[in-house]
């Protein structure tokens, strides 16, 4: 079967890819970006007829993404799996693919290009290389970038490019972090401080916050086969996604930008209530189902949420522990939102693996669960479902041999001699990179966690 490319186009992209020039750089060219910002950017180009917002996509790690996309002229399909038959759409908005470790200089040059006025990022929580809310200056890669080599870290890439630019830049973080824009601004500022020089263009550059939402599981062989069947050509870069897509962006730009609102995004003055609702309801429940589900032997989130006990716990987490901490964004009914989230998780066509959502817990937990936990304890509540989610993470970390987490060595060495539930809780709760001091010293919390870890620990452990 021939492979998808500009000369092998079974489904014409909504915009002529050849007409697009590069105006946006995206850092973190994974499946999520391809199913989200790249789609909205293409829809905006179709709605406006403006061809200056093609995307230069940067893969931060391996060359695999380039090997998938380059032979296909940057084209790929989004395979949408909802309750009906799957559909495919070919997306043409990615016009260049760079691999940062191979060509770090080209990445900086592209961001510094005057035709580029916007950078978007999906580099996951760990990609920010933060510690204690600021830049981790002990990180060896950050240290190496600070010596002046062509930068390899995201913060180093942005800083080096800003230092070369005359026009200010808008940098839109699209990761699941609290106040992601201001957070990234702080990291870049700290990087400049460590270098001893901040370029003038930094003050006028903008870091709007944004909230992104779409469930995008890792692509499987089945998905590739399904896409090939629907397209009649092979697509090595196909991504699979649910029909739902949401992008809320703080309307705070230093210069021109794609008319993303014409592609379905919402531009607003205040993203915070949206972001809190999404992180604390969707992502928190996702993580809880991933840990409890994996411990019960479920492969996918859909299987986990079809377990009546887990579904009831997810509902309780949302309604009793999370919603009391939230201020609803304008026009959003939080209870209805929570119910929709659980329906989306139950989509049986999405094979979203519990182990995929479970990875990187050390950087996800603080954002998704621990802020809410802190708020509930301060309010004098006993948030037993929230703590159960934390306990499930603890047991998962303790019982998973090859843990996929940036702090895996530290977690495993903390647990080296932990054979009882009390020892497991004490070892993990003591880690200051995860638990703030206020939670470490909350006595009721420790006792509750010990009981719950004991109840969740498999008998042969
Ligand atoms: C998930 C998210 O992998 C995870 O940790 O919770 O990727 C989730 O699917 C997205 O945030 C949905 O928008």
From TrEMBL:
Residue ranges annotated for the Mannitol dehydrogenase C-terminal domain, each copy included: 270-455
Origin species: Kribbella sandramycini
UniProt name for this protein: Fructuronate reductase
Protein EC: 1.1.1.57
Keyword Oxidoreductase appears in the UniProt entry: yes
Catalytic activity: D-mannitol 1-phosphate + NAD(+) = beta-D-fructose 6-phosphate + NADH + H(+)
Residue ranges of every copy of the Mannitol dehydrogenase N-terminal domain listed in the record: 23-261
Coiled-coil region: none
Keyword Oxidoreductase: yes
Taxonomic classification: Bacteria, Bacillati, Actinomycetota, Actinomycetes, Propionibacteriales
Any Pfam family hit: Mannitol_dh_C
UniProt keyword terms in alphabetical order: Oxidoreductase
GO molecular function, one term: mannitol-1-phosphate 5-dehydrogenase activity
């Amino acid at each position: 079967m021939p492979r998808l490319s500009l000369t092998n186009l079974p489904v014409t992209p909504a915009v002529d890819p050849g007409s697009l020039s590069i105006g946006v750089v995206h850092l973190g060219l994974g499946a999520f970006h391809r199913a989200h910002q790249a789609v909205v950017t293409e829809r905006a180009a179709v709605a406006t007829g403006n061809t200056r917002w093609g995307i230069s996509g940067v893969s931060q790690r391996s060359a695999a993404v380039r090997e998938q996309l380059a032979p296909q002229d940057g084209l790929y399909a989004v395979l949408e799996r909802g309750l009906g038959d799957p559909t495919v759409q070919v997306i043409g908005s990615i016009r260049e693919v760079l691999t940062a470790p191979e060509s770090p200089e080209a990445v900086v040059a592209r961001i510094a290009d005057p035709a580029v006025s916007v950078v978007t990022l999906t580099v996951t929580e760990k990609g920010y290389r933060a510690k204690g809310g600021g830049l981790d200056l002990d990180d060896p890669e950050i240290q190496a970038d600070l010596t002046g080599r062509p930068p390899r870290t995201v913060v180093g890439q942005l800083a080096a490019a800003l230092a070369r630019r005359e026009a200010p830049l808008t940098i839109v973080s699209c990761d699941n972090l609290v106040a992601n824009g201001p957070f990234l601004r702080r990291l870049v500022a700290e990087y400049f401080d460590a270098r001893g020089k901040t370029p003038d263009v930094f003050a006028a550059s903008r870091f709007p916050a944004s909230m992104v939402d779409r469930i995008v599981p890792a692509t499987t062989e089945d998905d590739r086969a399904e896409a090939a069947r629907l397209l009649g050509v092979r697509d090595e870069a196909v991504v699979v996604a649910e029909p739902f897509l949401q992008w809320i962006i703080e309307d705070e730009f230093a210069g021109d930008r794609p008319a993303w609102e014409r592609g379905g995004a919402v531009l607003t003055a205040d993203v915070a209530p949206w972001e809190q609702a999404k992180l604390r309801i969707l992502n928190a429940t996702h993580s809880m189902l991933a840990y409890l589900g994996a411990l019960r032997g479920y492969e996918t989130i859909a299987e986990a949420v079809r377990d009546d006990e887990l579904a009831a716990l997810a509902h309780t987490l949302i309604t009793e522990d999370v919603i009391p901490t939230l201020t609803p964004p304008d026009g959003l009914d939080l209870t209805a939102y929570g119910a929709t989230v659980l329906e989306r998780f139950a989509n049986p066509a999405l094979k979203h693996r519990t182990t995929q959502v479970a990875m990187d817990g050390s950087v996800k937990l603080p954002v998704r669960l621990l802020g809410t936990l802190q708020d509930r304890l301060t309010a004098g509540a006993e948030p037993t479902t929230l703590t159960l989610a934390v306990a499930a993470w603890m047991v998962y970390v303790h019982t998973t041999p090859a843990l996929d987490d940036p702090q895996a060595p530290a977690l495993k060495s903390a647990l080296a001699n932990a054979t009882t539930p009390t020892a497991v809780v004490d070892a993990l709760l003591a880690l200051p990179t995860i638990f703030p001091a206020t939670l470490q010293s909350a006595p009721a919390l420790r006792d509750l966690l010990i009981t719950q870890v004991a109840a969740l620990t498999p008998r042969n452990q």
